[in-house]
Predict the 3D structure of the following.
Amino acid sequence: MKSTTDKRGGISLGGSYNVVQHNTIRDNGKGSNSFLDGKPFFSDPTRYAINQEDSYGDNCIIRNNLIYGSNHGILVGCYSIQIENNHIYNIDSIAINLYSLLYANIRGNVMNNCPTTIGFMTTDFRNALVNILENSFQGGKFSVDATDSYQVNVANNHFVDVDSIYLGSSTINKSFYSNRIKYDQVSGTPSISAYKIENCIFDSTTVRDFLIRVYNQKGCTFHNLRISLQTQNGATKREKILIYDCEYTNSTLINLIFGTKDREVSISNSKFTDTVVKVGNINTVGFPATTTLENCELYSATMSYLFATDFNQPSGMIKLSHCRIEIANSSFAHLIHHDKTAGISSVFTLFLKDSSLKYTGTAPLDFIYYNNINPMIQLISANNEYINIHLPVEDPGIFVGYDPTNTYKTSVILQQTSDGYSATITHNLKTLDPYVLCTTLKSEMVQPLISIVDENSLLIKTIGSSILKVTIKKV
């Protein structure tokens, strides 16, 4: 059947067990094009190609239809509805609008050039469920029920140039997994907002900006993207992002504080190929950006650096633990690249611990830590392995060759007493059972009498040594 050029809509349904299939429904209730008869369009917004709202029903099926050129595509209010294998395109407003239902299964549809792909009106039912599975969306926006009145599963869909994907921040009512998101000709900065995404692929044909407001990211792949990591409530409170088992290729992962509270990004068991990890703070006093990598792999074949900063005020940190870094690029310039250096001082710390750095070239790589010393607070290197790498001269006051979270080092001048020399050492390790090593300036070991004063201080007494190098470790 064909239904065309109706002022308000094409097919209106009522009752239960309706099946609408194998129809061409076009130019119904349209608003952006004029009608052939020159009559004005119907002014009410309820102009749909297929409409079931006034007469309620159950177990309705809309499948295998071609719908285009209308104001809206489909509006359904049923206890249960199956919308399958329809092609909906060139719609002025909403392709599929869900109106107060208990169950909907939206599967195998193709929607392109629709400003809003799926709309959610408030449901009158508790525990309403919507499955959005194996569809193809091109262009427009995808927004899922900001009120959390529906439980929604979004899985195995293909999104092409959808500039905004929004699922809110519900920890239990929305799931987004095994979807493929492709950016080819999208304008502006596309974005996704959700509490959790799993096993998704984000791919761009060219390197472009991408905004992601997702608290938990698991098993996802990113390619050709400058990823801005943010949260949905970052303007008012400190929040954390967890990333695990993800892969990044030819991308930049950015944790930038700009008009928000401080943010921590924790990444584990992930792989970075020709990808830069970046932190920064612009015009936001007192809120640090922290990114930690645990048990990750970083590989550079083309990139000339692996870490970057963008600060005009303090502060930020990138911390790596149990990571493996492999450099194959013979033109590798430095480990850390600072975007801003003029007038910038003491804004960034790199903490590298229990990790390995390997250069795969034939001759050792003459390693450089950073392109400018001014932005550095500290470069901490603790228990790392450097393979086929010539390390540079350490900058005093910047380089720390141990882990300050469990080790404290100092040189102390002991004061003479009636029975020898003594000094009280204050540290920050919060332990009543420290390991203490004392040596002279000639690196000769000394065994003084040590008394624990409290969890952050101890008293050292010796007979003959007035100057000692002291190492305290938390065990």
